[in-house]
């Protein structure tokens, strides 16, 4: 009897001890382990094992992505076909070096550094098609058709590379078996890739996480849409939409599945993506940011998108406005929406008729009568004044009106349009009345950028 009691007590202590060990163990974090069990080929595993050591930041980003969860590896995006122009020659050399992890010939796969929308289209065909016809993808063409800095060579090639091309995109080229450093690295939205595709999905879905949540946040759009000429992020932050976002963004569900991000459920007030890209109401998600627009507020003279000569949209502005109104209806009543668009249309009309058209008429007269010389732009004060009237103040006025930011619509917009317009007209009339030629800046700095329109975009001209 005594012995039986001892055995029972011992067993009980053993069980309690096991519970104690288990409970204690629960307090220790488990070592995270990435298991690659989804039929990943040996070459794909080799990429992962190598980059885990050589570039742990890239590996960590990928490991936390939905791609990794779905068994999508480096090869699915970076693998090139034999004969592709952008194959990395340096990467091939790794497979003949025994001192590198997985550096063996058996793991060799041709790799291209740039991942293009054509590559992404293997899994995301609809998104790639929508993006290809957007202003984002075609922004190099638009830029060259509009911009006097490029067409007149009034800045340097490096100023363009570090500024203009960073957002608009470069035309990728190879040089001595490598990507030309004058064109790469670059993730501009309109980049022309060597496979003929336009753009870079990582402009908005940064590699190697490719998170949809990142593209839904206004800060992502604000990488390029900011500053004196198109301050959309500043305008958004001033607006009621931006104010609500800043106050409640910690409650937003940015990780909602693609196509399922719902106003009133996942977020309280829209971000840039909510209005211009995300599915809402009866509107499907789109990667064509040209959709839902009823005015081209970035153009010198505000026109309907289908009438924008540098890049006609091929859409009907009334149909697109109705799409945007449907998005607005998710949070606003019809009277509110209609009144807003009435104010926007009036702002556009006043900009066109009161400011732009009279100033453009005066500029043309000055050129016609020889008071201004149009062979080189920006070397005369009135050319700069006219440019900033539409490209700076005029854009801010229109965009501020379109996105409900009163300070940008008035103080940074129409208020400054008035001053710019008055100074422009004062000097213009003086030149005409005195039959005087405008003063030219004799030492305009750092010009000489190539004025040849890219043949890859425009053909040989």
TrEMBL record:
<dbReference type="InterPro" id="IPR051829">
    <property type="entry name" value="Multiheme_Cytochr_ET"/>
</dbReference>
<dbReference type="InterPro" id="IPR036280">
    <property type="entry name" value="Multihaem_cyt_sf"/>
</dbReference>
<dbReference type="InterPro" id="IPR023155">
    <property type="entry name" value="Cyt_c-552/4"/>
</dbReference>
<feature type="signal peptide">
    <location>
        <begin position="1"/>
        <end position="25"/>
    </location>
</feature>
<dbReference type="Pfam" id="PF13435">
    <property type="entry name" value="Cytochrome_C554"/>
</dbReference>
<keyword id="KW-0732">Signal</keyword>
<dbReference type="Pfam" id="PF13447">
    <property type="entry name" value="Multi-haem_cyto"/>
</dbReference>
<protein>
    <recommendedName>
        <fullName>Cytochrome c-552/4 domain-containing protein</fullName>
    </recommendedName>
</protein>
<feature type="domain" description="Cytochrome c-552/4">
    <location>
        <begin position="120"/>
        <end position="178"/>
    </location>
</feature>
<feature type="region of interest" description="Disordered">
    <location>
        <begin position="442"/>
        <end position="461"/>
    </location>
</feature>
